[in-house]
Design a protein that fits this description.
Blueprint (H helix, E strand, L loop, with lengths): L1 E2 L2 E3 L2 E3 L6 E5 L6 E6 L3 H17 L7 H17 L1 H12 L3 H22 L7 E2 L9 E9 L2 E5 L5 H14 L3 E5 L6 H10 L9 E3 L4 H10 L5 E5 L2 H11 L5 E5 L5 E4 L5 H13 L11 E5 L3 H13 L19 H17 L2 E4 L3 E2 L9 E2 L2 E4 L6 H4 L6 E7 L2 H9 L3 E2 L3 E3 L3 H10 L6 E2 L14 E2 L2 E2 L4 H6 L2 E9 L21
Parallel strand pairs: 1-5, 8-9, 8-11, 9-10, 11-12, 13-14, 13-21, 14-19, 18-19, 21-22
Antiparallel strand pairs: 2-3, 4-5, 6-7, 7-25, 12-24, 15-18, 16-17, 20-23
The chain binds nicotinamide-adenine-dinucleotide and manganese (II) ion (MN).
Length: about 500
């Protein structure tokens, strides 16, 4: 079994005291690799390395083009290793090989995008016009890195989340300490090995595995950390924001969702049915922007649900590495229990279970954490299963009478991450999308994100955006420069307010 090490200050090191623990495969419960458990001292060493690399190293002063070259080299090496990365990700997370293969492909492409974007963040001055009063001057802004970034990521898209944090932080000249989730550290630890081959100055990238409560809290409160970038649950996001206030760190949060999926009366069912299944059940529903609240026109409801359930029941559950498998296990035994508890809650709240609703443990599924794709109808939006993020293969279906009611239900949520509208009339779909209080709305699709498009949440789904120019900007401070062009004392009469021109002569 492979044993991994922490990556701190450009060196691979064991955790202080040598503590490590295995990471497990949720398909069969077997240990896959040994992962170090960072202590507080290890996390402090990683922060110190990142601090030193930022304050004294070459990285922040390099041009964006120079940084971009190293980031693109990382992207190329990730591309060469794409198949390995996908396989490790499947083993550790239970994601089907189709999903983790797509993730590995997208991850290297996104890293390349961040390398390309780096060039644009090369302290190019942005001139401000019309600022010459009261005397002549030249005024402009530049964008500079924030400093040391600490990034904490979840277990559902481990490799991609690592890239979403590393790419913009590095592209804009920051240094970083990255902490993967405890259930799925493998791809990030493997990525550290790839990072090490690319020529980053020591301490620019530090990757440490360890418990979120302990290590996460240190990263969140440490005075030498300037920014915290977090993806995970809204509950932990709130805790991080509160703790970061002690040192007023810059905070970006990508948190939970309960995304509404509105099928309009004139939707094309050929795409809307498969699309709604894709929206809610991709990666066993463990996607932050999953379309977990399906809103159907009352008169079409039964027919739509019937066709959807027939398809859902036909999807094969199995080994994530088998290309025929469509539904893998959820990430861990404890997460399976959480999801099953929500299913019980849905039953006691009075929703109607139309498929799934239990663990699948027949035959070779016995050692895995499988949950049958589950659909509840007769859900009302005030039920716990409609309000809280379940983060598993559980869909809540609701009926609406008219579009206004659909929008009202859609927006009745503390979350505002994703949303979708299905209609053959694009203008009509756009009008509905315009009324939805969410950071992304898909029209006749779902889950498709682009590295060029800002992604993030309204309301309690988050703060800030990732991807695009907006995403890069989140990793910069803006410096305003005023350069005097009045030059002589006579041209600067505003000093007279305090110091007469003939004072003490
Ligand atoms: P989580 O909040 O439990 O954990 C996320 C990370 O935070 C892990 O690395 C964990 O170790 C760490 N952590 C835990 N407690 C901490 C603390 N007190 N201080 C600092 N760090 C701490 O979330 P999860 O269960 O790993 O992931 C699922 C959640 O992530 C879902 O809510 C999902 O919606 C959300 N998510 C959001 C996005 C997005 O972009 N909006 C993407 C993926 C996942
Ligand atoms: Mn695992």
């Amino acid at each position: 079994m492979d044993t991994y090490q922490l990556y701190i200050g450009g060196k691979f090191v064991d955790a202080e005291g040598g503590e490590s623990k295995p990471t497990f495969n949720p398909w069969n419960g077997e240990a896959i690799a040994n992962i170090p458990v960072a202590s507080i001292a290890d996390a402090e060493a990683a922060i110190a390395a990142a601090r030193d690399a930022f304050d004294n190293g070459p990285w922040p002063a390099m041009t964006g083009a120079e940084r971009g070259e190293i980031i693109c080299a990382l992207s190329s090496k990730m591309k060469e290793r794409m198949k390995d990365l996908a396989r490790l990700e499947s083993l550790d997370s239970g994601g089907t090989i189709a999903k983790t293969g797509a993730d590995a492909f997208l991850a290297q492409r996104q890293m390349n995008y961040f390398g390309t974007m780096a060039e644009k963040f090369n302290s190019e001055p942005k001139e401000i016009e019309g600022m010459s009063r009261p005397g002549r001057s030249y005024n402009y802004t530049i964008r500079e890195p924030i400093g040391v970034c600490a990034s904490i990521i979840p277990w559902n898209f481990p490799l991609m989340m690592a890239v979403w944090k590393l790419g913009p932080a590095l592209g804009t000249g920051n240094t970083i300490v990255l902490k993967p989730a405890s259930d799925t550290p493998l791809s990030a630890m493997e990525l550290a090995r790839i990072v090490d081959e690319c020529g980053f100055p020591p301490g620019v990238v530090n990757i440490i595995s360890g418990p979120g409560g302990k290590i996460g809290e240190l990263l969140t409160t440490h005075p030498d950390v300037d920014k915290i970038a977090f993806t995970g649950s809204t509950e932990v996001g709130k805790d991080i924001m509160a703790k970061a206030s002690g040192t007023l760190k810059k905070v970006t949060l990508e948190c939970g969702g309960k995304s509404p999926n509105i099928v309009l009366h004139d939707a094309d069912w050929d795409i809307a049915i498969d699309g709604s299944i894709f929206a809610s059940f991709y990666h066993q529903g463990q996607v932050c922007e999953s379309g977990t609240r399906l809103l159907l026109p009352a008169d079409q409801h039964d027919d739509f649900v019937g066709q959807m359930v027939a398809k859902l029941n036909s999807l094969p559950l199995g080994d994530p590495l088998d290309p025929a498998t469509k539904i893998g296990p959820v990430v861990s035994g404890s997460h399976m229990s959480t999801v099953l508890d929500y299913i019980e809650k849905g039953k006691t709240e009075g929703a109607t279970l139309v498929c799934g609703g239990e663990r699948a443990a027949d035959g070779d599924l016995a050692n895995g954490y499988f949950i049958k794709p589950t659909v509840f109808t007769d859900v009302t939006n005030d039920m716990v299963i409609a309000q809280e993020e379940i983060f598993g293969p559980v869909l809540c279906v609701m009926k609406y009478q008219d579009e206004d009611e659909a929008v009202k239900i859609a927006n009745d949520s503390i979350f505002g991450l994703g949303g979708g509208v299905w209609s053959e009339d694009i203008d009509r779909a756009r009008a509905v999308a315009g009324k939805m209080r969410t950071g992304t709305v898909w029209i006749n699709d779902w889950h498709l994100l682009s590295e060029q498009m800002p992604f993030g949440g309204y309301k309690q789904s988050g703060i800030g955006r990732e991807f695009g120019e907006e995403g890069m900007n989140e990793y910069t401070e803006v410096k305003a420069l005023h350069v005097d062009d009045a030059k002589t004392r006579e041209n600067k009469p505003w000093y007279d307010m305090l110091v007469p021109q003939d004072a003490a002569e």
